[in-house]
Amino acid sequence: MPNAVESATAAARELAALIRDRLPIACGTDRWPSLGWALLARMAGTTGTIVTLRSSQSANDGFCLLRVLYEHVVTFAWLAADPVDERIDLFRKNDAIERIKADNDLRSIGDYSLEPETRRQLEALRDSIAGNCPKVPQRAEIADLYWKDRIEEFVEDSTSPYSFRGMYRQLYRHGSFLVHPTLLGLNKVTTQNPDGTRTIHMEAVDRPPFPIGLTVVVQGAALIVAEHALQWPPLGTVNNIVSSHNWVPETVG
Q1: Whether residue 208 has a cis bond before it, omega within 30° of 0
Q2: Tens-place pLDDT, residues 14-35
């Protein structure tokens, strides 16, 4: 019988395959649902990579990818809660701002990443849209507020560790210590010896545990939202996949 880690890995693999097998999909000219499907496609790729990486037991790198997955999931849940032009425009404005910043940095050394006409279009887009895209934790809170009254699985508020905002605290904040060079991240490859010396080694497989269970929670949350926002997959599909592998969130990291 598979152990909890193997069960979670199988569930994550099946959730990613669910999206992958639905693609490609023709979406027409409307920004939504094409934007939603594009976010799901990115999630499926990241989840699949996390599943592949699990055999290496590199928990640090697993958490880095989980952070990427989470940000796509929260953005999807935030947009899906109210996929009107105003909210999508804030997302587009934020994209324009970041692309212009990157181009500015290259232009400071005489290079560029944007053709002049493309830059003019992005500047016009940026200047034409009032307001700013909320930061990730605010997107999470907005998504929680909307979906908790509409999806049975999301009955908890933003204080729950399994809410979108709760997952931000639990994995996005924690993951930042591993994405960036920090002492906490370096602790994973350092052992303090009794005599005060240190031994530097490759990442130990038992600290921390590989976040395959959290991957199921995060990817599963996006697909449960999709059941309602995109009317795909059919209601109950995600729960059926997870339960078929006899896995619950509390059993593995």
Answers
A1: yes
A2: 999 999 999 999 999 999 999 9
